[in-house]
Amino acid sequence: MIDLDGVTCRYGRGGGDGDADAAVATVAVDDVSLSVPDGEFLVVAGANGSGKTTLVRTFNGLVEPDAGTVTVNGTPVDEDLVAARSAVGMVFQDPRDQLVAATVGADVAFGPENLGLSHDEIDRRVADALAAVNMAGRERERIDSLSGGERERVAIAGALAMDPDHLVLDEPFTGLDEPARRSVVDRLRALHRGGTGVVVVTHDLRDVAALADRIVGLADGRVAVDAPPDEAVSALPGLDVRVPESGKFASPAE
Ligand SMILES: Nc1ncnc2c1ncn2[C@@H]1O[C@H](COP(=O)(O)OP(=O)(O)OP(=O)(O)O)[C@@H](O)[C@H]1O
């Protein structure tokens, strides 16, 4: 469970408290309280600059709030960063920011190696994580030989190899063609069914609306919508969020 209580994040204070500094501060996240239960598929939607990335980066301490608290499984994130980062896996907007090794297997193993696990356990986690993104047995392939969709799936596998309770993906469909988008959506559906909590950040709901248990819509750093998809749909276009054309969401069952 991820819990946010009164979280506020600012940029650009320049390290001082004077009026001049305050005048240039951007409030990216403004007094947000939110709980993300284990196993939930949550979509965080909102226009560019509404605070989505900043908000989810507080979930595992990549961004430290200026006010408020974030706890993961009951422990404040700033008291145990390792626990928070083990429980909340993050896949960045551009997988190139995240892929660190030359081959698929070495890349996915990077996180578990830093946890000090045994070789057998690392191998098992890498194999399981690659299977979960439909890339079983491709450990030896070079990252630079992969398509954009495959790189995205390797980035997801790298986060999964940490065995997180929640997987957070920031704009996972950017730059992917339709088959690659569908493949990533299929993987997210399967992960959710397997019990992993999934948080997807997007300004375009078409790919994930049918999977969501709940949609949180941000506007100017505040929660403007917090509802199941069918209820959220009427409010979201007002937040400059692209919704499926029918305005209705398909059943996630298939
Ligand atoms: N490192 C930074 N330094 C200064 N301002 C920042 C920084 N990161 C974000 N901001 C500002 O904070 C606000 C929220 O940005 P954030 O990236 O969290 O929103 P977002 O909804 O994820 O946007 P996008 O969809 O464009 O990624 C914006 O006004 C942005 O310009």
Automatic annotation (TrEMBL):
<dbReference type="InterPro" id="IPR003439">
    <property type="entry name" value="ABC_transporter-like_ATP-bd"/>
</dbReference>
<keyword id="KW-0813">Transport</keyword>
<dbReference type="InterPro" id="IPR050095">
    <property type="entry name" value="ECF_ABC_transporter_ATP-bd"/>
</dbReference>
<dbReference type="InterPro" id="IPR027417">
    <property type="entry name" value="P-loop_NTPase"/>
</dbReference>
<dbReference type="InterPro" id="IPR015856">
    <property type="entry name" value="ABC_transpr_CbiO/EcfA_su"/>
</dbReference>
<comment type="function">
    <text>Probably part of an ABC transporter complex. Responsible for energy coupling to the transport system.</text>
</comment>
<dbReference type="Pfam" id="PF00005">
    <property type="entry name" value="ABC_tran"/>
</dbReference>
<feature type="domain" description="ABC transporter">
    <location>
        <begin position="2"/>
        <end position="245"/>
    </location>
</feature>
<protein>
    <submittedName>
        <fullName>ABC transporter</fullName>
    </submittedName>
</protein>
<keyword id="KW-0547">Nucleotide-binding</keyword>
<keyword id="KW-0067">ATP-binding</keyword>
<dbReference type="GO" id="GO:0005524">
    <property type="term" value="F:ATP binding"/>
</dbReference>
<dbReference type="GO" id="GO:0043190">
    <property type="term" value="C:ATP-binding cassette (ABC) transporter complex"/>
</dbReference>
<comment type="similarity">
    <text>Belongs to the ABC transporter superfamily.</text>
</comment>
<keyword id="KW-0472">Membrane</keyword>
<dbReference type="GO" id="GO:0016887">
    <property type="term" value="F:ATP hydrolysis activity"/>
</dbReference>
<dbReference type="GO" id="GO:0042626">
    <property type="term" value="F:ATPase-coupled transmembrane transporter activity"/>
</dbReference>
<keyword id="KW-1278">Translocase</keyword>
<dbReference type="InterPro" id="IPR003593">
    <property type="entry name" value="AAA+_ATPase"/>
</dbReference>
<keyword id="KW-1003">Cell membrane</keyword>
